[in-house]
Hints:
The complex is a heterodimer. By secondary structure, chain A is mainly β.
Amino acid sequence: MTASGPPFRLLPRVDDSNRFYWTSGADGHLRFQRCGDCRHYVHPPAPRCPYCLADALAPEAVSGRGVVHSYTVNMQQWFPDAEPYIIGLVTIAEQDDVRLTTNIIDTEADDMAIGMEVEVDFVEAEDVWLPVFRPVAGAAVTNAAAS
Amino acid sequence: MRADQLLERKAVISGIGQSAVGRRLNRSDLDLTVEAALVAIADAGLTRDDIDGLSTYPGMGMGPGGFAGPAGPDVQDALRLKLNWHDGGGEGPGQIRAVMAACLAVAAGLARHVLVYRTVTESTAQGKGGRQALGGMGGMTGSGGGPPRMMGFMQWTIPFGAVSATNWLAQVARRRMYEFGLTREQLAQIALNGRRNAMLNPIAIFREPLTMEDYLAARMISTPLCLYDCDIPCDGSTAVIVSHVDYAPDAPRSVAHVNAIGTAIRGRPSWDQFDDMTTMAARDAAASMWKRTELTPADVDVAELYDGFSILTMTWLEELGFCGKGESGPFVEGGERIALGGELPLNTSGGQLSAGRLHGFGFLHEACLQLRGEGGARQVAGNPEVAVVANGGGPIAGTMLLTRGPA
Lengths: 147, 407
């Protein structure tokens, strides 16, 4: 078991539509597009707000907090000599229909639970900062059945 | 909806065929496709000169090696078909989108007899390597000799080692355990049922007995999914002939009537953003199918429900209405209800978990066999009259209701 994610990461291709997202971690903040009209967060990035169709999207920092919606411990060696690692699906604190597939780090598989509160950290790799999450110290596991 | 508006009812499946099916056959996808096509054409009482339509899923090189099957134009040319209508592609309501398109084409008069095929050579393509990750979605680009960079949906999952549908659907299974109390012993019933049926299917890939102990001891792929929750890559081609219903009296074999198709997707078309992970697109496809028929889940005699992963079959059982939401675990408990002699015989050929990953079309072929009474040792008793076929998982879903007689 490794507490830092997969040993080898294929990276996203950065372009004009996603550069703000994949470089957001450079200053330690997670950002999403947010609509200036209806105030929804939008993910993945879109040309205009898919909620209200306003042409008013701009990146905005969020708290970096979230809740584990689901998770799995990958055991298959897709990469040579890979130790098991935790893949998580995290719902951001600000909006319950924005989820990130990510890694849950700094914890053991046996301590994982749906509803666990987590906070963002970043793995810097070449020209991107990949958002990963670790458990919030001392936080309770909330009932996330409705989230 | 008035019955005369249900254009899929203008279509029947008049012929079915399969190539050799196996592991590492080392034959080309085109070779296997031509074999299956000739069986299906003859089964329908036709010759290639009668075939005026062609359709496939997906064709044209989509996905990793061995996934796509031959492109339509290659099949057309190999058989020198003269086509009035042709179609192919990987977008739509599951793999049987190609069959749905053919149904609508014959209803519209664009073609009279459509050859529809799905061919995989994933076993040969994977060769000595293990099961391939990075599956099926496209979205990679090379960058000057370095590792490829991820585009599209892949950029949101692959960088985190979520490289396979196994990873994505393992999270669905975990969520089902959390919301509904699903257990591994319940999930196992999909795999054990498939294996029991595969033992009665001479061309199934895996025909050795599988016990609950074997299942529980199997290695994990991505928790809580173990080896036996994942289907088995194979080589093989399945072909069907979709004909206009007017041809039914002249067909040498009993045709399967298309009663209704389910095509909807109303949630976000995404593996990780779909509103309800425990249903995903199966919810919408199933609901849209039942709106197009007078039949109900209680009328179904045979269920052929996609099992690329066991957890998908659980979802289909619920969303098609065979049990309530969250109740598929207790529904399959013990396995009797879904066995050949049970109230809902399920995945009678062994499914993709044991018979091989023919990618949706194996279920269609099996449903037709069962409606004809040609299931051999695994034939469901009592002359089944209604079969449901479900294809796909996650944000990909399509359903088809078939009947032995006309509506």
